[in-house]
Amino acid sequence: MRFDEAYSGNVFILSKPDYKTADAVIYGMPMDWTVSFRPGSRFGPARIREASLGLEEYSPYMDKHLEEVNYFDAGDIPLPFGNPQRSLDMIEEYLGKLLDDDKFPLGLGGEHLVTWPVFKALHKKYDDFVVIHIDAHADLREQYEGEVLSHSTPIRKVCGLIGAENVYSFGIRSGMREEFQFAKESGMHMYKFDVAEPLKKVLPTLAGRNVYVTIDIDVLDPSAAPGTGTAEAGGITSKELLEAIQLIAQSDVKVIGADLVEVAPIYDPSEQTPIAASKFLREILLGWVNKK
């Protein structure tokens, strides 16, 4: 896998052509091999890039322009179709290289299992970090119908890796009874239904700490983001997720990377889901990269 060659397809708007000088690297993880309901998120990274071409390059939220951030779009990791373990190994290897080169990794999914090898790569570099997890689903299962490699398991896996007390979940409104029991008993921090308001209380307690943020697009209500594999009614608005991104940008945490997953464009002919995702990525680039 090459890291320093310009991607031949569509790139995220205003991406710079030089990997070596880039502060942040956008990369795609086009995998949906383990989804439990509707596939299609492997097409998310490409469609988000295409949708970004319609973005304004200036953000009135951050009062910044994308020209102010040096980021490189490396394209998608060429994951082997239908092979979860090999795909996860390739993502971990890829992230290891980005982190060795001191890049801010900004991943596009793909199903949420792709975040698990990212966590593993981060754990090799950082002795201590916190996960902020924004999602409709708890993702705290140990397995799904006997399969331990499932998009319903990455947060349970990272609890075991870095300690449940270092995991903060927001917006959760779906999961098994046992998942919510685990959250209560393990010491992890779960905030149901809302995102921005609990973040306001939590972020000051994380000041100075390394934080990785993983966002599942299905935290949004299906009326705002129908293009996802496992939509859940009762979600937050795009405005609230934008507010959450701003809150993290304005806080004293050290953001060490992020991803946005589970965009499945086939279920959204209106394209509002990839359009919203591309705007969230713009705000992440402007608000979080220089916090590294």
UniProtKB/TrEMBL annotation:
Alphabetized InterPro entries for the sequence: Agmatinase-rel, Ureohydrolase, Ureohydrolase_dom_sf, Ureohydrolase_Mn_BS
Reaction catalysed by this enzyme: agmatine + H2O = urea + putrescine
Pathway: Amine and polyamine biosynthesis; putrescine biosynthesis via agmatine pathway; putrescine from agmatine: step 1/1
Source organism, top-level taxon: Bacteria
Keywords, comma-separated and alphabetical: Hydrolase, Manganese, Metal-binding, Polyamine biosynthesis, Putrescine biosynthesis, Spermidine biosynthesis
SUPFAM superfamilies in alphabetical order: Arginase/deacetylase
Keyword Manganese in annotation: yes
Binding site for Mn(2+): 112, 135, 137, 139, 216, 218
GO biological process: putrescine biosynthetic process from arginine, via agmatine; spermidine biosynthetic process
Necessary cofactors: Mn(2+)
Cofactor note: Binds 2 manganese ions per subunit.
Primary enzyme class: hydrolase
Enzyme nomenclature, EC number: 3.5.3.11
Gene3D superfamilies assigned: Ureohydrolase domain
GO molecular function, one term: metal ion binding
NCBIfam families listed in its UniProt record: agmatinase
Entry similarity comment: Belongs to the arginase family. Agmatinase subfamily.
Role description: Catalyzes the formation of putrescine from agmatine.
Official protein name in the record: Agmatinase
Organism: Fictibacillus aquaticus
